[in-house]
Amino acid sequence: MSGLMSFLAVEAVPDVSFTTDANWFLENVWIIPLLPVLSFFAIIFFGKRLPQGGAEIGIAAVGVAFVLAVLTNIAWLDHRDNFDYHDGQTRTHSEKHSDGDDHASAVIDVDGVPETVVLSFAEEGEDAGEESHPSVAVVNEMSWLTNGGIDFKAGTMLDGPAALMLFVVTLISLLVHIYSTDYVSGDRRYTHFFAFLSLFTGSMLAYVVSHNILQMIVTWELVGLCSFALIGHWWEEKPNSDAALKAFLTNRVGDIGLLVGMVILFFSAGGTFDVIEINEKAVSGEISQTALTWAAISLTAAVMSKSGQFVLHTWLPDAMAGPTPVSALIHAATLVVAGVFMIARLYPVFWYGFVIPGSSINGLALIGSITVVFGGLLAFVQNDIKKVLAYSTVSQLGYMVLALGVGAWTAAIFHLFTHAFFKAGLFLGSGSVAHSVHSFDMKNDMGGMRKFMPTTFKTFIICSIALAGVFPFAGFWSKDEILVGTGGFGVGAEKANGEYTLMLVMGLVGAMLTGAYMTRCIYLTFFGEFRGHGHPHESGPRITIPLIILSVFAFGAGFLNFPPGFLTGDAKKPSFWQERFGHFVEPLAAYFPPISHSVPSWWLAIIASVIGLIGPAIAYFYYFVLVDRKANETGEKLTELPNGPTSSIGFLKAGHTLLVNKYYLDHLYQNVIVGFTKGPLSKAAYWFNQNVLDGVVDEAGRSAERSGRFIYRFIDQGFIEGVVNGSGRASSTGGQGLRKIQTGKVQQYAALLFAGATVLAGIFMIVN
Amino acid sequence: MMLNQFLLLAAVLFCLGVYGVLTRRNGVLVLMSVELILNAVNINLVAFGAFQDNVVGDVFAVFVIAVAAAEVGVGLAMVLLMYRNRKSIDFTEVDMLKG
Amino acid sequence: MDFFRDWGLTLLIFAPLIGAAVMMAFPKTDESIHKVLALGTTLVTAVIGVVLLIDFDYDRADEMQWAVERNWIDIIRAEYAVGIDGMSLPLLILTLLVVPLVIIYSWNHFPHPHNPKAFLMLILVLHTGMIGSFVARDLVLFFVFFEVVLLPMFFMIAVWGGEDRKYASLKFFLYTLFGSALMLVSFLALFFLAGAETFSIVGLSDAVAEGGVSRNAQIWIFGGMLLGFGIKVPMFPFHTWLPDAHTQAPTQGSVILAAVLLKLGTYGFVRIAIPILPEAAVVWSPVIGALACIGIIYGALGCLAQTDMKRLIAFSSVAHMGYVMLGIATLTDWGINAAIFGMVAHGLITGMLFFVAGSVKERYHTLEISRLGGLLVSAPRMGWILGFISMASLGLPGLAGFWGEFPAILAAYNPANGVPVGLFRFYMVVAALGTVLAAGYLLWLLQRTAMGEPSEEFANNPEITDPNREEWIAWTPLLVLILVFGLVPGLIFNITDPAVEANISDCLSTDVGDDKASFDVGTCERDGIDAALADLGVAIGDGE
After folding, report:
1. Which residue of A has its CA nearest to B25?
2. Which of A115-129, A185-199, C377-391, C486-500 has the lowest mean pLDDT?
3. Mutate which of C442, C487, C516 to disrupt the A interface (most A C-beta within 10 Å)?
4. Which helix (DSSP H) or strand (DSSP E) does residue A510 occupy?
5. Distance between CA atoms of A499 and A476, rounded to whole angstroms?
6. Does the beta-carbon distance from A255 to C377 stay under 8 Å?
7. Is C327 part of any domain?
8. pLDDT at A7 over 90
9. Where in the sequence is the domain holding C139, given as residue range(s)?
C-alpha cells in the first residue's frame, strides 16, 4: 500500500529539475550580481573624483540591478507556470533514476517518513492538477576549475527562492543606498561606504543565485567580509573595530561547520558541488542518512553564526556599531538571512538529516524556538534603540529557523520576505531618529519624538505593528503560517509535517514578547517628554521616502500569500488569489523534498492574535499608564518606575541581571575562550617553541660545538696529530741515518752496484 | 775450442775492469776500465752468438761498441771539464752529491 | 620556438649566472650599472617565462615540456635532465615573477651595509638555484641546485640582516644543511637499492614500482626525505629556524625566502618523494598529516603570542605550510592540487606581507606591534593593502589563499587508499579550526596596526607615507594576482591537475570511508589501479 502510494507521489512530480534554455532574463541573472561588483571597483578607483563621491555609481548599478531583478521575477512568473518540460529542452541530472520504481523504493528507504506525508503529497498531486506543474530551475553554467580530472562549473541557478531574494536584496539595497546619501553625507569615508555597500549587494546577489555549494561558500564569506568592513566603518574607535572583529571571528567559528558540512555533502553526493544534484540525491536516498545528519548538523553551526541563532548570536547586537543603513541592509534584511536561505536552498539535506517529517522535535526547530524566546527577552533590557531591534532580529530569525525546522518551508521564506521590509523599515526609522538627536540612547536622548518627526513616527508604528504580527499587517500572515506549520496540538494534523507542540508554544511566547518590547521601544522613543538636547526635526526626503516605501510593503506584503481557504472556506481547492507566494517560490521538483502544507486554522489565528496582544497590553499598561502617571506626578522625565518589579522582586532582579549581562555568553567568549587562547594558551605554545623546540635545536648546536672542542683537543690534537707528527719524525730520523750511505763518491757507488749485482746473481743462481 | 775458454777470458777481463773501476783514482783510467768491462761483455756476446749459430750476438756486440764509443766521448768530455774546473781528475775528490 | 624548446630552460637556468658574471666586471661604485644589469637579467628570465607560458601545451600538462636530456656525469649516471610540466610551471613562474619585483623593490632601499653589487649578485645566484630546482628532473641535478640556494641566502642574512643575524644565519644554514645531508643519503640509498643505474626521477620511480626496493627500505628512505624536505618546508617541529631567519633577514631576503625557498621543500614532496615512493608515502601520511595539523594550530598560537609584526608573519608561514602539508598528506588529486595552489598563494600573499612589513619598518623604524597603530590614518593606501592581504592570508574566498586551504580540508575528508580515513577526518576538523585562529591573529594584527588613531609617537610623522613608486611597481602584480587567482582558481588548477594525476594518482587512488557515500570517480579508477598494483605484487595497506 505504502509502496503504491509513494509511487504515485513520485509520479506526480516529473523528474525534471532544471533547464538551461529559458527566457533571457532567467538565463542571464549573472548580470545582476555583476553590476554592483563592477560598481565596487569603479567606486574604489574613481569614486573620490566624482561629484557625489561615488554614490551615484552605486545607486545606478543597484538601480539597474533592481529593474533586472523585477524583470527576472516577471519572467519567472511566466516560466513557473508555462514551461513545457516535455519538449525536450530539458535534461535531467541522473538518467538512471528516471524510472519511478527506483524512486519509490528510495523514498521509503529514508527513515521516519511517515505514510501520511507521502499520502498527502499524492493527494495534492491528484486534487490540484495545476499544482503538480513542476517548478523547473534555470541553470546557466561555465567551466570554473578542474580537479581530479573533473571539470567543476560555476554558474547561476534561478528558481523561486532565488528570484524572490533577488527582488528583496536589490529593492532594500536600493532604498538603503538612497537613504545613505543623506544619512552618511559628510562622512570621512563616504566613498568607501558606498563601495562596500555595492560589494555587499553584489556578493549577496551572487550568493542567492549560486549554482553550487562552492560558490555559496565563496559568496557567504564575501558577505561576511563586507559586514566586517562596514561594521568597522568607523574603525578609529576601538569598540567599533572590536565589534567588527567579533562579527568576523564568530562567523568564522560557524564557518568550520560550513566547510565541514559542505565537504561531507561533496563526497557523499559522489563528488559534486552542484546544489540541484546534491538535493536530488538527498531526496532519492542516494546519500546515506548518516552523511545527511552529519552534514545537517555541521551546516546548522554555520547557520547559527550567520543567522544569529542562540549561543552564536552575540556578534549581531555588537554589529550595530556600524552605520544604521548597514544595520538595516546587512544585519536585518539580507546578510543575516543567508543562513536561513542556505537551509532553504539545501532543504532536502536538513529535511532528511534532521528527520523533520513526522517528528515532534529536532535540532533545527529547537535552536530556532530557543532563539525566538531568548532573543526576545534580551530586547527588554536594551537602552540602545538599535540593540532592541537587533535582538528583535535575532528573535525573528529564530522564527525562520524554527519554521524550517518544523517543515514549514514556505512559511519560513515568507517570513523572511515580510521581515526584510518591516525590519529594514524599523532600522531606517531608528536611524532617522538618531540622525536628528545624534544618539541611539532611548533613555537619555529620546522621548516624545512623535511631535518632531511625524513621518518617521508613522512608518515606525506601521513597521512595529507588522513586526508584532497584528492582523492584517504583513507579519501577521507570515507568523501565523509558521505557527500553523508547527502542527502543535494537532493543528492541521493530517496535513502538517509533524506535531511540534513545543515549537508552537515557544512561537506564541515569542509573539507575546515581540509586541511587548516593541511597545516599550515605541514608548521610550516617541512618547513621554523629550530627554535629549537640541532641537530635533524631521529628516529629509531621501530618508523619509524609503521609510514610506518600506512601510507600504510592511503593511501589504502579507497579502501575497493568503492561506488557502481564506474567506472561501475550502482549503483543498485554493482560489487563484490564495497562496500565490507559495506557488511562486516553492520548488516543486525532484530536488525538493515532499513537504506538505498545513491547513490554516481560524482558531489558532485568533488565539495567536490574542496572545500576541497580551504582551503589548501589559507593556502598554506599564509604560503608558503607570510610568506616564508617575512621571506626571513627580514631574520627572521617567523611563521606568523608580521601584519597579525588576528591582524589587528577587527572582525578577536575578533574571534582569542575567539579561543585562546577556546570559554571560560574551563573558564566556571574550574573557574565557578568547582570553585563554590569546593569553595563556598562545604564550604557553610560544614558550614551548622557544624553550623546548628551539631549546633542543640550540642545545644540539651547543653540544655539537662542545663535542667539536673535545674532539679537537683530544682526538685531533692528541691522537691524529700525534700519528701524523710521529710519522714525520720517524721519516726524518730514518733519513738522517740513511744519508750516511750517500757519500757522493762514484767508486763507492760502483762498488755497491757490483756488490748488489753479485748478490742478485748469487740469488739467481741459487733459485734457479 | 770450447766456449768456456772464451767465457773465462771474458770473466778475467771483466774482473780486471771492475778492479780498475773500483780502485783507480785517475778518471781516464776509470774510463779505460769501463771499456774493459764492456769488451768483456762483447766477447761473451760474440762467443754465444758463434756457438749458437746466429748473428744476434754479433749485432749486439756492434751496438755495444757504438754505445761504448759514445760513452767514452761523453766520459772524456766530463773528465776534461772536471780538470778545467778543479785542476784535477781525481775521482775521490769529487763528492759534491754527498748526503 | 624550436630554439626555446631546446635551449629555453638552459638559458633560464644560466642567464642569472651570466648576469652575475658580467656584474663582476664592473667596480662596486657603479651602482646604477649593477641595478640595471641585475634587473635586466631577471627581466630576461621573466620574458623567457612568458614565452614558456605561451608555448606551453596546456592539453599535455602532464608531460615534460621543453625537456632536455644530456649526459652529465657519466660515472655516477647523473644526467642534465630538465623539463617543465603542470606541477612545476606555476612555481617556476612564481619565481620568475617574484625575483624581478624584489629587485625593483630594492632600487632605493638597499639594507645596511648597502653594497648593491654583492647583494644583487647573491640574488642572481639564488635565482639560478631556485629555477634549477624547479626544472630539474634528475636527483643529482636537483640536489645541486637545492644546495646552491643555501649559500646566497646565508650571506644575505648574515651580512644584511638584523641585530641577531649571525645566530639566525648560522642556524638557517646548518639546520637546512643537516636536512639536505639526510636527503642526499636517501637519494644515494635509492640509487643503490633500486639498481636502475639512474638518478632520473622517472627511472627511479619505475624501478621502485617494479619491486626493486623492499618495503622497509622504502619507508626508511622516505623518512630521510621527510626530514630533508620537512626541514625546508618547514614542518612542525623542524620550523624553529624559520622565525629567526625571517626576523633577521632583510626584507628582500624574507620575501624570497617566504615566496620561493619554502616551496622547495613541499615541491620536493610532490615531485620526488611521493612519485618515487608511493607505498612509503601511504605509511608516512598519518604522521605527515598529524605534524601538519599540529603546525596549523601551533603556528597560529605562536602568532597570537608575538609582539613583533615580522615574527608574527613568520609564524603564520608555519601555519600556512601546515595546510599545504595536509593537502600533500592526503595523497589525493584534490589535496595535492590544493598543495600546489597553496604554495603559489602563500608565495604571493606572504611575500606581500613581508614587503609591507619591510616598508612599515622603514617608515616606523620598529615593528613592535604595540607601538604601531593607525596605519590607515597615517598611510591609508598602505593600510588598505595590509587589510587586503590579511584577508587573503586568512583564506577569504575570492582571494588566492582560500584555494590552498579549502581543497586541502576537503581532501582530508577522503584521503587516498590505505590512509586512515577516520584520522584524516579528525585532521579535517582541526584544520578547519585553524581557519578561525588564522582569522583571529591576522585581524588582531590588523586591528592593532592599521585601525585606531596613530600613537603620539608617530602622529604627523612626515616619514610615514603611502607606498612610493618602486613599491607600487613591485606590489601591484602580486596584489592583482592574489585577486585573479582567487576568482579564477582554474588558472592554476587546470594546469596542475593533469600533472598531479599523472604523477600521483597513477600510484594512489581515492578511497571511500562512508558506507553509502561513495565517491564514484574514485571507485571506478580504483579497481584498475588495484589490479595493477596486485600485478606488481604490491599490497598497499597490508600491515607489513
Report:
1. A747
2. A115-129
3. C516
4. helix A501-526
5. 22
6. no
7. yes
8. no
9. 2-535
